[in-house]
Amino acid sequence: MKKVVGSLAVLMIFPVAVFAQSSQTYSVQEGDTLFGIAEEHDVSVEEVLSENPGIANENVISVNQSIAIPDTDGAAAEESTGQSAEAAPSETAAEPAPDSEVSESEAAFEQEVVRLTNVEREKAGLQPLQSYGDLAEVADAKSEDLRDAGYFAHESPNYGSPFDMMTSFGISYSAAGENIAAGQDTPEAVVNAWMNSEGHRENIMNENFTHIAIGYAEGGEYGTYWTQMFVTR
C-alpha cells in the first residue's frame, strides 16, 4: 500500500492580506503554500527553493515573507515523490463517500492519534494539546475531501488552503498548522510517520499550539486518509 505524508504551518497574529508581486519577488499572503506559489508562477518547488536558500523548510513560510520567483517560462509542476507535502496520487475516480457520520472505530482511531501525539509532546516536556471538537469537523471534512476528490495536497480544490477551510468553518486562531498522511493502517503507524519527518514533527512539537483535531477517512486510492490540525487559541 502506498503511504505519503505532508505538513504545513502558518503563524499569524492578526489576519493580514498583503499582496505584492513582480517578475522577481512575491509577498506571502495568509493561506499561501510554497507549492501554490510555485504553481501560480508556473515553476517547480525545487526552482523556488533554489532561488531562496534561506527557506530551511518548504512546509513553513510566513505571511509577508518575500520570496524570489525564478524567471522560468512554463516550468513543470513538481512530481509526486511519495514523501512531499505536495505529493499527488494519480488521477483516478474517487470511491463513493460512505455515511458522513464518523463511525465508532474511526472516532477511536482519531482519539488514539491525539493520545499518541501528546505522548510525544510530553516526552519533550511540552504541554499536551487539548482536543477541539469544532476543529475535528474540519479535519474530518479534509480527510473525506482528500479521498473523494482524489488528491493529496494541503490546497483543496473545494476548500482552498487549510487556513481558508478553518475560517469557512468558523474556526478562529492566532496560529495554525496541518499534517496530512495517506496509506497508514493504524494510529501508531501514522504518528510514527509524522514523527520521522522533520516538517511534521515540528508541527507536533510546536510549543505555541494549544489545540488539536484529527480527521480519519477510509477508502479511495490510498485506503486511509489522515488529517491532523493544530491551532493556537
From TrEMBL:
Low complexity: bias regions: 84-100
Domain of life: Bacteria
InterPro entries (alphabetical): CAP_dom, CAP_domain_YkwD-like, CAP_sf, LysM, LysM_dom_sf
Start and end residues of each stretch annotated as Disordered: 73-106
Keywords, sorted A to Z: Signal
Residues covered by the LysM domain: 24-69
Signal peptide start-end: 1-20
Keyword Signal belongs to the record: yes
PANTHER family linked: SCP DOMAIN-CONTAINING PROTEIN
NCBIfam families in UniProt: spore_YkwD
Record-given protein name: Putative YkwD family protein
Organism name: Sinobaca qinghaiensis
